[in-house]
Structures are given as C-alpha cells and as structure tokens.
Amino acid sequence: MGRKVLVTGGTGYIGSHTVVELQAVGFEVIIIDDLSNSTAEVVDNIEKISGIRPVFEEFNLLDSDKLTAFFGKYPDIEAIIHFAAFKAVGESVEKPLYYYRNNLVSLMNILDCMSKYKIPNLVFSSSCTVYGQPDVLPVTENTPKKDAESPYGNTKAISEEILRDTVKVTPDLNVIALRYFNPIGAHPTALIGELPRGVPNNLVPFITQTAAGIRQQLSVFGDDYNTPDGSCVRDYINVVDLAKAHVIAINRLINNTNTDRYEFFNVGTGYGASVLEVVKTFEQATGLKLNYKIVARRPGDVEKIFADTKIANTVLGWNAETSLFDTLLSAWNWEKRIRNIS
Ligand code: UFG
C-alpha cells in the first residue's frame, strides 16, 4: 500500500488533477470535500483516469467533530494538501465573514488535528493574489506583499501568516505554500476540468462557454492598460503542470529535503499573456472564431502580473511544460465533452 495523503477539496478543480498525479506515483489518496463547488462524479472520473478509486469522505471542514473523527479513522496519514476553500473574488466582497470563517477556520481546524494526530507535513494552496499589483515584474517570492484586493485574497495572505506563526512554535510541523498564478486547462483525457457554477468569473471558462454557445459574447475588460496590446496580463499555468508541483512538494516534505520548515514558491510559467493573446491563441488552437467585445475595465483588476519561477525551477526542480496553445485546447476539449459537442 502507498503512503497516505489527505487531499481536502480533492473533487475541486486543482484538487482533482492533483489526486490523479499523486495516484500516478503510488500515493494512496483520501479526499475530504463537502461538494459545495464540485460533484461526486469527479470521484468516478478520477477512477476512470487512474484506475484507482480514492477514498472519499463528504463533510465540511468547519465541522471539527467530524474532522477529529476522520483522523481517528485514518491515523496513518503522512501528509495533507489543503485545497478546500471558497475562491470567488466578487462573492467574497459581498460576504466577507462567510469567506473569512470558511477559509480560515477550516485551516485552523486542520492545524489543530495535525498537532493532535502528529501529522508533520502540509502543502497549502496559496495565490499570487498576495502580491497585489507589484511594482516590479516578474514577482519573486521575496517581492513585498501588498494589501489584498478582496476578502478572498486576504484569506490567502492571513492563512500564510497563520502557517508561518504556527510552524515557529510547532517543531514537528513542515509546510510548503504554493502561490498559484492563473490555473487553466483540463486533464488531457477531458474527464476532469473546471466546472464553474453559474456565469463564470474567470477568463478561460468564459471563453470556452462562449465558444460552446452557452454565453453570447466574451467581454474583454479593458484595452487601455499599460500593456503591449492594452489588455491585462496574467501568467496562465496549466492545471496538470500545477498539480505536479504539489506532488514534488509532498515528496520534499515526506523525504525531509525541505531546507526550511515553512517554504513558499511561485507556481507559474514565467510568461505573461494578455487577454487578447489568450483569445487569439484559443482561436488558433481550436480553429473557432470567438465572439468578443472590448468593454470597460473590471474594478479591482490588477494590470499585469507574472511569476519569476527561478526558485521553483531550481529548488523544487519543477517546470511548467505545457504550452498556452495546448492548454487552451485541453480546456476546449473538456468543455466539448461536458456539453456533448462533437
Ligand atoms: N477577463 C475578461 N473577461 C472575462 C473574465 C476575465 O476580460 O469575462 C480578464 C480579467 O479582466 C483579467 C483576466 O481576464 O485581466 C484574468 O481574469 P480571471 O478572472 O480569470 O483571473 P484573475 O487574474 O482576475 O483572478 C485570478 C483568480 C483569483 C485570484 C487572482 C489573483 O481567479 O482567485 O487571480 O490575482 F485571486
């Protein structure tokens, strides 16, 4: 039997891809998810890809009694990857307490249990949102953090502080925070991918839904930014490449090759693509014409951000491998499968 890893939020977008990559290298995965933003069918599809059905426990991490009982049932978990969190920026502005409670209390409940059950290793889902609009690009891990633009972003910044402070006083605890840039795309089998509820907020799901005829038109938010073509620039990272960074981080913790007990890494491609470039690359990859129009800027948007990935490349030995072209094609193949488009 493989070494046991708990993946919270394991039926979600990044979580499900990470479960598949963990299974591929022999880890035994146990998922906790409350299905608040995913479906149980994801477990079936993970099994279709890997041939292995992960253990799945459905509950909310705010329920500390259930969480304690869970660790009593699986005492030999060696490491945890904590994805489970709310992530809609706009919703977090509307419901700050809902976001703070969910994202922070669930993390603290997990840390309590790690201490109680002597689980030494945690990989945490953080975000480039902790940098805000940086003064200098690309952003390195040491770029000064700025005030978060939203309660969601602030939960990531505060979570990192909670982890840093907890590691300081917990000699057995080792944590790696991965700061994701913009994850996009889907598994090459098209069996798992991003499934936004309602109208997508994020660019790529909006593009694929427009191409599928579910949305009439993509609105490009602003073409008057200080960027080469005037649209915002982001670092779009393939979700499978991102998932693999988690496997490396878990191995680093389990094998004790981490040099600090609290480490954090940028996970991006190092390349900044504009919104219009993403649209054009999508058109090239799929041969489709996308209906889009330029509209006003979206409040709160950062003008441009992309990662310096040197530390992840050299220290973790991780590299983004998949091109934007192939990644956008994978996103389209996923959209086609779930909408029954041939
Ligand atoms: N965009 C459009 N039209 C759309 C949707 C997005 O033009 O319909 C543009 C945005 O203005 C932005 C870019 O596409 O320039 C990317 O937008 P996303 O919403 O996909 O991603 P963000 O960079 O705004 O947000 C992402 C994550 C957040 C995280 C943030 C940190 O979704 O969780 O990065 O910077 F907080």
Describe the structure.
40% of the residues lie in helices and 17% in strands. The protein is an alpha/beta fold and 342 residues long. The protein folds into 2 domains: 4-185 and 237-267, Rossmann fold, CATH 3.40.50; 203-234 and 270-339, UDP-galactose 4-epimerase, domain 1 (Alpha-Beta Complex), CATH 3.90.25.10. The strands form 4 sheets. It has a 7-stranded parallel β-sheet with strand order 3-2-1-4-5-6-11, with helices on both faces. A two-stranded parallel sheet has the order 7-10. It is globular. It starts with a strand and ends with a helix. Bound molecules: uridine-5'-diphosphate-4-deoxy-4-fluoro-alpha-D-galactose. Uridine-5'-diphosphate-4-deoxy-4-fluoro-alpha-D-galactose binds at residues 87, 89, 127-129, 152-153, 182, 201-203, 206, 218-221, 232, 234, 275, 298, 301-302. Residues 87, 89, 127-129, 152-153, 182, 201-203, 206, 218-221, 232, 234, 275, 298, 301-302 line the site of uridine-5'-diphosphate-4-deoxy-4-fluoro-alpha-D-galactose.
**Mean residue pLDDT:** 97
- Describe the main β-sheet briefly: 7 strands, parallel
- CATH fold field value of the largest domain: Rossmann fold
CATH architecture heading of the largest domain: 3-Layer(aba) Sandwich
- Overall, the morphology is globular
How many angstroms separate the termini? Answer: 40 Å
Q: What is the top-level CATH class of the largest domain?
A: Alpha Beta
Decide which structural class fits the backbone. alpha/beta
Based on DSSP secondary structure assignment, what is the total number of beta strands?
13
Give the quaternary arrangement of the chains: single chain
Neighbour order of strands in the largest sheet: 3-2-1-4-5-6-11
User: Strand fraction band?
Assistant: 15-25%
Count of discrete domains: 2
Total helices: the number is 11
Helix content: 25-40%
The name of the CATH superfamily of the largest domain reads NAD(P)-binding Rossmann-like Domain
Task: Report the uncertain regions.
Answer: none
